[in-house]
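Objective 1b. Sequence-to-structure analysis of Tryptophan--tRNA ligase.
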Amino acid sequence: MTEDTPTPKTDGGTDSVASDDVALDPWGSSTIEDYRKLFEQFGIEEFDAAAVPDPHYLMRRGAIFGHREYGRVVEAMVNDEPFAALSGFMPTGDPHIGHKLVFDELIWHQQQGGEVYGLIADMEAHSARGMSWDEIDEHARSYLLSLIALGFDVEDGELYRQSDNRTLQDLAFEIGSTTNFSEFEAIYGFGGETNVSHMQSVVTQLADILYPQLDEPMPTVIPVGPDQDPHVRFARDAAARMRYFKVTEAFASFELDDEERELFSALYDTMTADDGVDTDDLRCEDAAEYLSEREFAAAGVDADPATHESLIEKLENGGKEPIRPRVRFLDRNANAAAFDALIEEIPGEKRRYEAHIDSFDLDREAAGEIAREVEIAHDGYGFERPSSIYHRFMTGLTGGKMSSSVPASHISLLDDPEDGYDKVKSAATGGRATAEEQRELGGQPDECPVYELYAYLLTEADDEFAARVYEECAEGERLCGGCKEQAAELMQEFLAEHQEKREEAKEVLAGVDIDLDSDRRGLGGQEGEDAV
C-alpha cells in the first residue's frame, strides 16, 4: 500500500473511545466494540507488524492487533533459537472461517521454525458446554482435518486432546496446587454454582499454555482471540509462581513490594543524578528524608500515596544501612538442595539471608539465567512467562458477531461450496443505500463483513489485491453487487479446494497418535455459544 492508499483501520474501533468497560469472558457471547479499550484496561500492547521478520498477512493487515511480550518470540525467531506456539480448539461445532485465523497463525509459526502444538479442548467442551463425548469426537476429527488440510505438518508438530494426555494432567495437578478459588472468582466470576469440572478444565488450560515448555523452557506464543486473555494472564501468573526463585532488583537488606521497588528505583536514579552526591555514603535514612521532602513522581513513576508512605517507613526503619544496588534471588518454592546450589553458582560478592540471596556483581538477566539453570537441575520447571497475540473477531455475515450457533452468520469449512457462495451473496455489506450514493460518497469497507472476507481469507498473501478492493470500495468505484459476486466465487473456489485437501488429510490424520474414538462416559448438558 502506498502512502496515498486508504488503509483499513487496524484497531477495530471507532474514532471515539467507548465509556463502558470491556468484559473478556472466554465462554461468553459479548462483542468488542473498541479494541483500543483492551490496551487501556488489560495492558495488551498494540501489535507492530514492522517488528516481525516476514510478517504473516494477518499481521500486516491488522487482523492481529495486540500482544503480550511477543518480542521475546520474535527475538528467538530472528536468532534461530527455540520457540513454540500453541493454541486450542473447543470442538462444539464445525470449524468455520473464523477458526481459520488461528489455524493459519499456528501454521505460520511452524513455518518460521517454531515447535507448534494444536490441542483439542475436549474437557472444556464437556464441562463448560455440556457436549457429549460422541459429539466431541466427531467435531475434534473435523477440526484436525482442516488444520492439516491448511498446511499443518504433523511430523514437525504435536496434536493432542486434553483428556488423553497424562503428562498434561500431571502438570495441571501441580498448577492446581498453586491456585485457589478466590482467583477463579476474581478472574472468571465463578461462584458457588460453578461446577468443579469447569474449574478443573480451566486449570487444564493453564497446563496447556505451559505444556510446550516441559522439556525445555522457551519463549512460547499463544495465538487466540481477545476473549481468551483471562486464561493467558492466569497462565503467566502460574508460570511465575511455580518458579523456584523470583529475581528482582534491590537496594538494601529488606524487601519491597513491586510498587515500592519501582518507586525506590526512580528515587535512587534521581538522588544519584544530583551533583555532589557520593553514592558510597547514601543511607536508607537519607533516602527517607529525600522522599518525604517532595511530591515524588520521577522517571514516569506515579506512585499512589500509600506506596509513598510505606516506602518512607521502610527506609526510616533501615536507618543507617547503606544503599547498595543489587540483584536479589527470592526463595519461592526451592527445596533446600536448590537453595544451597544457587549460593554456590552465584559468582562474586553475595550475601545469604534466610529467604533470599543478594548478589552485588550480577545484572538481572544473568541472574535470571543462573536461577533457571539451578531450578531445572533440581527438578523444577523453569517456565518462561508465555506470550500471546490477539486477532480480531470476524464480523458475522449477517452483521454482529460470528457465532457457531448462528449458521447464517458464518461459513463452515464443511459447507457445500454452493452454500458458501450463497451465504456470501446474502451477506450484509458496508455499502450505501443506493448505487448513486455509493459512487458519490464511497463505501465503508471498515464496516463491511464482505471486505473482511477479502482481507482475512480470500486475497491470502496478495496485499495489492486486498488494497485494491479497499480503495475501490472507499472511493466509490466498486459496487456491492459486483464485489459480493467476486467474493462469492472466490469463497466457492476456496471451499472446494479445502474440502479436497481435507479428504487427502484423512490418511495423514490416521497416522497421528491421537484417539478420536473415545470410550469415555459422561453426562451431557446444554451447549453454550461459541464466538471466534
